[in-house]
TrEMBL record:
Its main location: membrane. Pfam families: L_HMGIC_fpl (PF10242). Belongs to the LHFP family. One of its GO terms (cellular component) is membrane. Keywords: Fertilization, Membrane, Transmembrane, Transmembrane helix. It is a multi-pass membrane protein. This is LHFPL tetraspan subfamily member 2.
């Protein structure tokens, strides 16, 4: 018989798991990892900085995408992937970053999907589903940390220097500033480890004595604070 068990701690863990997964996924797909120096569509970077005329804007560069403004484009800034194939990503470090982030996000999305069903199923092959998911979240967090540590090592690539100036180098962003996607990825990584730790509390809440008492009373829907 399926017992639907809902507790504050288990629901909070489910919600945080979904937020972490979607946050990392949105950050990975975003072009706002690096925000370039101000320029116009026909700007040229010289020894004294960017020579511009007219209204300036700041292009953005992601792991595999970018947003730029073209002189002939009347509808605003054009965003899209600059890398059609994996080998066209700006540097080997960013390729490694892509692999680690993608692996971490895949695990987080799997956990987020499973977490929705934890109200009805609390074990897998006699193992706590919360403990299994917590372990997967811990592994995902390690993948995300590796990806974020390798990401700044790719700032010395030719692609980054087009956006950040010739002073850009590994772990030095030059004239660029960090975009919201980088901070979102960092926040998502922290939240991933919070979820991994909090999964133990969700397990405790759904296997407490109060829950067992209500199961013995024959209740199929159990809601506890």
């Amino acid at each position: 018989m399926c017992h639907v068990i809902v507790t504050c701690r288990s629901m909070l863990w489910t919600l945080l798991s979904i937020v972490a997964a979607f946050g990392e996924l949105i950050a990975f797909m975003s072009t706002d990892w690096l925000v370039g120096f101000p320029r116009t569509p026909d700007a040229v970077f010289g020894p004294h900085g960017a020579t511009t005329a007219g209204e300036a804007y700041r292009p953005t560069l992601g792991i595999y995408g970018r947003c730029i403004k073209l002189p002939h484009l009347q509808r605003g800034i054009l965003c899209g992937p600059y890398a059609v194939h994996f080998g066209e990503i700006a540097s080997g470090f960013w390729q490694a970053t892509s692999i680690f982030l993608a692996a971490g996000i895949l695990l987080l999305c799997a956990v987020a999907f499973i977490s929705v069903f934890t109200m009805c199923f609390q074990s897998i092959m006699k193992k706590s589903i919360f403990n299994v998911c917590g372990l997967l979240q811990g592994i995902a967090g390690l993948f995300l940390i590796l990806g974020l540590m390798l990401y700044p090592a790719g700032w010395g690539s030719d692609k980054v220097q087009l956006y950040c100036g010739p002073d850009a180098a590994p772990y030095r962003a030059g004239l660029c500033s960090m975009g919201w996607a980088f901070y979102t990825a960092m926040g998502g990584t922290v939240l991933t480890f919070v979820c991994a730790v909090f999964s133990a509390q969700a397990e405790i809440a759904t296997s407490s004595d109060k829950v067992q008492e209500e199961i013995e009373e024959g209740k199929s829907l159990i809601c506890l604070l």
